[in-house]
Amino acid sequence: MISSIEGILADLGDGFVNLKAGHFTYQVFIPTRLSRRLKSRIGQDLKLFTVHYLEGSLRMGNPVPRLVGFENEVEREFFERFITVPNVGVRRALRALTLPINKIADAIENEDVGLLRGMKGIGEKTAKKIIAELKGQMEKYALLPRGDILESSEEGENDEIRELGVRALINLGYRSAEAEKMVSRAMSRSKFVRVEDLIKEVYRDHREQGRNSAPEDIDT
Q: Positive or negative CA dihedral for 150, 198, 81, 90?
């Protein structure tokens, strides 16, 4: 079992890093949040605490060994608990971890389905299943201080919400530039934890803009 790996961060891909350790370069899958934090560390030393697992099954063919990496042991421990939820596999969990661990843990303990539903790939049914399986086990992680190493910058969190909001508007048929402008206008007035709240604010703004631009009624 490989429990940690240390080397030079050779490059950063979509959901993974290539870590050069001695004469070998290892591909290590990482959570979405960690990917954002590592953008400025290409070429630097990096140590990751890892989960070593086999992807695939013997019945379907040869399973492929994979590594998943985290900045510290607490993050890794949380992830190992998170993937015990039925139908939340390794890849799905990695995409879903877009919020700070303490916020996710607190949402589970407080049965905040809405916040969990705002994570990538997590619908209402899965959010409720996560709560049912993990509530009562998350107090330790919910108590992580905001200044802990596990926290990314507020700017990183806002970037994630912004990206999801823009994507949602593009899916509704808006042009990319128009969607960016609408989201920026809403985010200039408030901070958002959930993309649903951002979209509600964009809608309110859009409705208000429409009222302001409507021609006045003329009596005849």
A: negative
Instruction: Assign residue 203 a region (left: φ > 0; alpha: ψ between -120 and 50; beta: otherwise).
Output: alpha
What's this model's pTM, rounded to 2 decimal places? 0.65
Contact call for residues 17 and 32 (beta carbons, < 8 A): no
* CB-side neighbour CA atoms (13 Å) of 143: 4
Give pLDDT tens digits for 36-86. 788 888 999 999 999 998 887 667 667 888 999 998 898 899 999 999 999
Distance from first CA to last CA of the chain, Å, rounded? 83
